[in-house]
Amino acid sequence: MSIPVQSEGSVATKGGVAPGETLLKVTGLQKHFPIKKGLLQRQVGAVHAVDGLDFEVKAGETLGVVGESGCGKSTMGRLITRLLEPTGGTVEFQGKDITHLGVSGMRPLRRDMQMIFQDPYSSLNPRHTIGTIVGAPFKLQGVSPEGGVRKEVQRLLEVVGLNPEHYNRYPHEFSGGQRQRIGIARALALNPKLVVADEPVSALDVSIQAQVVNLLDDLQQELGLTYVIIAHDLSVVRHVSDRIAVMYLGKIVELADRELLYKAPMHPYTKALMSAVPIPDPRRKNAKSDRILLTGDVPSPISPPSGCRFHTRCWKATQICTTTEPPLLELAPGQQVACHHPENFADQAPQDTVLLTAAKEAEKLLGETALQESAETSAAVAATLAEESAESAVEAGEPTEPAAESAPEAAEPTEPEAGSGEAK
Ligand SMILES: Nc1ncnc2c1ncn2[C@@H]1O[C@H](COP(=O)(O)OP(=O)(O)OP(=O)(O)O)[C@@H](O)[C@H]1O
User: Fold this and answer.
1) Where is the ABC transporter domain (predicted)?
2) What is the predicted pLDDT for the residue at 191?
3) pLDDT of residue 352
4) CA nearest neighbour of 251 among 32, 51, 47
5) 197 neighbors 116 (Cβ within 8 angstroms)
6) CB 133 within 8 A of CB 186
7) Which strand ranges, in their side-by-side order, compose the sheet holding 113-116?
8) SS3 84
């Protein structure tokens, strides 16, 4: 599809943020929704929807955000576009702190950051024509596009693959996929720099999902857009994201380049999510499923578990996971992980070996292939690391013993890891 050039020039070069430079920076971002009770509406607790997020989004990239329902993805999207006021932390957009900007302070920035919502049925006013809906941002911002609003709206409709002649039609006259295209046209009207798409295709038929995802991809290529795409399903963000953040109960547990995340996920939760993505390969139709089934429900965000929040469902959890929250560390270039016992990497807490009872139960539900693979990859990576550090120790003239210590898994037999938890 050919997309007409925007009248105001390339987004990526507009406003001084060059591709690859930081467009959005989030530090320690928090949102706690108060729970109030009684006549006096006293606060009795809080929903820890987003609980300390740190990440950056570079101009021109697509950051995918995935996680189960209720993990705080939408809240995060609304916080970074400042549709919600954060409880803590900071949000910087183009180097400017926008954390506590009021409505008037945010108004000029609204042009630069737009949101696409999940439900193309409820996000469009049924009483307004498409022309009014897509043209609304011009009115709200007091912008008069060259050639008039009508001409610009028709151009935008064409950009998203809709017939510009349908300017006077109403939302109910369009299919779900077309309505989502209308939502995208509205988001693009003011030539934004950052587009946050919250589950942009979840409400659509699978056959239409690919069309909308491809449209978003095409628009990014042509207009130099920066995306944060939120989805509960890795298969949606898989093809469009440059980097992917995996969220669990209000926290990022892994943030990595797409390739790294798919080839060697380090957080057990990422591994479990990935095992749930179906592989469309007819040759595997009789293969034994190695899907990782997580035990129990997602704990309540009102009183999240202590230590690592995933420990209640993790098959690798040990004592330290219940007491100490693992920091989000860059364990490999381009891969940040918050885990004491990561996959595909040397153990971060090798001294702590006693598996929790819950973990032992979770282990029973894991596919054997998954456990075997997990053990093999961890042992292989640990062996490579041990080799590398032994080599560097020899080069530096040091004794080679400490290298083996720093990668204790290297010495382990390649038995399933969860089963060999005691010896880890
Ligand atoms: N306005 C609100 N008041 C109180 N709690 C809220 C509010 N908005 C969200 N929450 C709670 O915050 C938590 C995170 O919600 P959020 O919608 O951000 O999750 P999500 O990962 O986007 O889930 P989904 O995919 O189902 O939308 C949930 O427990 C939710 O109930």
Assistant:
1) 24-274
2) 87
3) 82
4) 51
5) yes
6) yes
7) 113-116, 194-198, 226-231, 62-66, 243-248, 251-257, 335-337, 329-332
8) coil
Question: Tokens 């920035």 map to which residue?
Answer: 109
The lowest-confidence range among 17-26, 70-79, 158-167, 269-278 is 269-278
Nearest CA-CA partner of 270 in 309, 234, 298: 234
CA–centroid distance, residue 309 to ligand 1 (Å): 17
Q: Are 203 and 176 in contact (CB under 8 A)?
A: yes
CATH number, domain 14-35+44-241, options 3.40.50.1220, 3.90.25.10, 3.40.50.300, 3.40.640.10:
3.40.50.300
The sign one gets for the Cα dihedral 323, 325, 330, 336 is: positive
Can you state the angle between helices 268-275 and 368-395, rounded to 10 degrees?
A: 140
Is a pLDDT exceeding 50 seen at residue 7?
no
**Which residue has the least CA distance to atom 18 on ligand 1?**
72
Instruction: Determine whether the shortest distance from the Cβ of 176 to ligand 1 is under 6 A.
Output: no
- Does residue 69's CB lie within 6 angstroms of at least one atom of ligand 1? yes
Instruction: List residues bridging with 66 in a β-sheet.
Output: 231, 246
Q: Are 219 and 3 in contact (CB under 8 A)?
A: yes
**Per-residue pLDDT tens digits for 187-199:** 999 889 999 999 9
Handedness of CA 368, 373, 378, 379 (dihedral sign): positive
Substitution site in 43, 47, 85, 117 for ligand 1 pocket (most atoms within 8 Å of beta carbon): 47
Residue type, 211: Q
Q: Reduced to 3 states, what is the DSSP secondary structure of residue 180?
A: helix
* Strand pairing class (96-97; 88-93): antiparallel
Across the chain, mean pLDDT equals 81
Q: For 349, how many CA atoms within 13 A lie in the half-sphere containing its CB?
A: 24
Cα–Cα distance list, 79 to 50, 95, 191, 294 (Å):
9, 17, 21, 29
Neighbouring-strand partners of residue 50 = 31
Phi and psi angles of residue 29, each rounded to the nearest 5 degrees, phi first: -65, 130
- Domain range list for the chain: 14-35+44-241, 287-331+343-423
* CA atoms of 270 and 143, how far apart (whole Å): 44
Predicted pLDDT at 391: 66
**Residue 33 alpha carbon, nearest atom of ligand 1:** 4
